[in-house]
UniProtKB/TrEMBL annotation:
Protein name (database record): Pyridoxamine 5'-phosphate oxidase Alr4036 family FMN-binding domain-containing protein
Residue ranges constituting the Pyridoxamine 5'-phosphate oxidase Alr4036 family FMN-binding domain according to the UniProt record: 5-112
Transmembrane segments: none
Single GO MF descriptor: FMN binding
PANTHER family, per the entry: AGL049CP, PYRIDOXAMINE 5'-PHOSPHATE OXIDASE ALR4036 FAMILY FMN-BINDING DOMAIN-CONTAINING PROTEIN
Length: 233
């Protein structure tokens, strides 16, 4: 990929504006998949563009990289994991209230656990060095708070009937010296932990203010180029 599509800087600037305006909810987006009968939607946390370091203390042995792939993380025991395997087509909706703009992304979701050469064409890597999904997955895992890592080690399937059980919290400590039981939990969590990488094929940007709003769409063409179209709101 030579250039990133123009929706990327526009989306990033609007997100940054909301975050600077203290709207942390801007990172929460609705991710929809195909269920057996209904569309299935749920809130997930945007973890940034693949390969892009966002904060101090965020380390990776990968070389610095940029991409147009949006990432969130999940647990393979969650129903959405199987739904994505059955049909990777998704819609993701973001609402940035301080910027008064909605983004709808459409594309294919990729579940990443093992190292793979998939999607590497979406990256600009510094000096053409080797960049790996294995390191990226570990970077995202290490950034997660302990309670989220622990949630991927619970001994039940999220969404299944409780049958009298109570969901006791399984706590992982952030300490260096982990007790053996914590290590086991961490291993179980890491085993279930996946990146969900959103490869975008279509974007719809709607500015709701000032009225009557403004709207733009982007489509990926057969030749894999991006076409941008100004639309009526
Ligand atoms: C604020 C918020 C953020 C969430 N972030 C994620 C996330 O990043 N990944 C995820 O798998 N689930 C996340 N969840 C939980 C999902 O919304 C959902 O309840 C859970 O993943 C089960 O979804 P499923 O049954 O459709 O697989 C989040 C929930 C909330 C309320």
């Amino acid at each position: 990929m030579t250039n990133f599509p123009s929706w990327k800087p526009r989306f990033s600037q609007n997100l940054e504006h909301d975050l600077k305006s203290k709207n942390e909810d801007a990172l929460n987006f609705t991710f929809s998949t195909f269920g057996k009968k209904y569309p299935e939607s749920r809130i997930c946390v945007f973890r940034g563009f693949a390969g892009e370091i966002r904060s101090k203390g965020d380390h990776s042995s990968n070389p610095p990289a940029k991409s147009d792939l949006l990432v969130f993380t999940t647990d393979s025991k969650m129903p959405k994991y199987e739904e994505i395997k059955q049909n990777p087509n998704f819609t993701a909706v973001f609402w940035f209230s301080k910027s008064a703009v909605q983004y709808r992304f459409y594309g294919k979701a990729h579940l990443i656990k093992e190292d793979t050469e998939d999607l590497l064409a979406h990256f600009h890597v510094e000096d053409g060095k080797k960049w790996s999904w294995k390191e990226e997955r570990l970077r995202q895992w290490n950034k997660l708070p302990a309670w989220i890592r622990g949630s991927m080690a619970v001994p039940w399937i999220p969404g299944e009937k409780a049958n009298g059980r109570t969901p006791d919290l399984i706590e992982l400590k952030d300490s260096e010296a982990k007790a053996p039981s914590e290590k086991l939990l961490e291993e179980e969590g890491l085993n279930r932990f996946h990146l969900v990488v959103m490869e975008i094929e279509k974007v719809d940007e709607l500015h709701s203010q000032p009225a009557p709003g403004r709207r733009r769409k982007w489509f990926i063409t057969e030749g894999k180029d991006w076409e941008e179209i100004a639309c009526m709101p």
